[in-house]
Amino acid sequence: MFESLSAAKPDAILALMATFREDPRTDKVDLGVGVYKDGSGNTPVMGAIRKAEAQLHKSQTTKTYVGPAGDAGFNAAMIDLVFGDDVPKDRIRAAQAPGGSGALRILAELLRRARADATTWVSDPTWPNHVPLLGAAGLNLKQYPYFDAASGTVRFDEMIAVLGAAKAGDIVLLHGCCHNPTGANLTAAQWDQVTELVLEKELFPFVDLAYQGFGDGLEQDAAGMRRMAAKVPEMAVAASCSKNFAVYRERTGSAFVLGRSPDEAHIAIGQLLGVARGMYSMPPDHGAALVKLVLQSQELTTEWKDELETMRLRMLSLREGFAEALRRQSNSDRFDFLKHHRGMFSRLGATPEQVEQLRAEHGVYMVGDSRINVAGLPENDLDQLAAAILSVMGSSAS
After folding, report:
1. Residue 243 annotated among the catalytic residues of the structure
2. Is the domain of 290 the same as that of 236?
């Protein structure tokens, strides 16, 4: 049976993590792995989550299945967190999923069932796992222009031109905030323009909201998506709790469908649960139970929001500090775009060869496309890191 298989191509990020662990250098810097880190390089358990876990330990009386849709209280709390009060709740349905990735996958299967001939447009670049996740569901993928590496800005006019030529019924995958891998986000005005285009061309918006709270704040990060949801007739949204609740290994996420009517939303969620039943049967519940406890408690919600805000502000401070260090070392504004990007990630603009040189000569680890995890920046050695990067990339302005 297995003799017909060829060796799988190693996952680049997982391979990078393994190489970093084996590197004996004490001054090595990990800017590759996509998880939040504190100043000590750890990914901590949030205090609100610890308290919720203690409550759950005392109160939980069974480990039986919660059903394909997951916990109703979790789903209701996540609808409030993601959509706020901008959309009639009777047109929204939610399903608990195994992380944001699981939500993307089951929603992709649903969309293929609904319109198999549609093209799904993804940004260039996009999160590398979008392509295998959506492609495995059978979606036909094409790219729309998004990021200009030279300026560190969104190629918005080109994006609109390409999407303007899409056919009615095509699907547009949008990053809700904190674009991965670039950190370059749409402005409020651009979100509104995309919304008008979606309505005019009868496109279907599919939003990946993986980093709510990591950019400009919980409400601000969802604002563009919410304004779109208030205007479009239908939509799909995948949300992750991995980052903003730091429950990475618990695989906690939500899949949302917004229907033209409550009846259509009901039909769509029924089909979505059929997809889930055929893929993993029931969702994992531990992380969702913790998130529900946090969001249903005013005290824990306040503590969680304070912790999340501390994380967000730390990343903003690191962005500004690193941009200033690069400005000092290069005597140019070449990397000032780092200040304006949001979320955990930005691209430095290094070539794959320069990325490898940084690893080999300086112990600086990043993904091959030069995506860095801002949360991994060494806050006390930013000038030293900037000097190392410029020694490889060149220090002149470009």
Report:
1. yes
2. yes
Residue 381 and residue 275 share a domain: no
Residue carrying the six token digits 């303007």: 164
Q: What is the pLDDT of residues 250-269, one digit of tens each?
A: 999 999 999 999 999 999 99
Residue 236: burial class (beta carbons within 10 Å; 0-12, 13-18, 19+): buried
Tokens of 333: 């504004």
Catalytic residue among 71, 103, 121, 127, which? Answer: 127
253 and 111 both lie in a single domain: yes
pLDDT at position 396 over 90: no
364 contacts 358 by C-beta, under 8 angstroms: yes
Structural domain harbouring 30: 8-37+301-393
User: Does 86 fall in a domain?
Assistant: yes
Answer whether the bond into residue 125 is a cis peptide, omega within 30°. Answer: yes
DSSP string spanning 48-95? HHHHHHHHHHHH--------TT--HHHHHHHHHHHHTTSS-GGGEEEE
Burial 114-139 (b: 16+ CB within 10 A, else e): beeebbbbbbebbbbebeebbeebeb
> Taking the model in full, what pTM does it have?
0.95
The answer to whether 118 and 169 have CB atoms below 8 angstroms apart is yes
pLDDT band at 10 (very low <50, low <70, confident <90, very high): confident
Q: Residue 371 in contact with residue 341, Cβ under 8 Å?
A: no
* 63 annotated active-site: no
Catalytic residue among 71, 170, 208, 221: 208
Cβ 363 vs Cβ 25: under 8 Å: yes
Whether 51 sits among the annotated catalytic residues: the reply is no
For residue 193, give Cα distances in angstroms to 224, 227, 231, 364: 10, 11, 12, 39
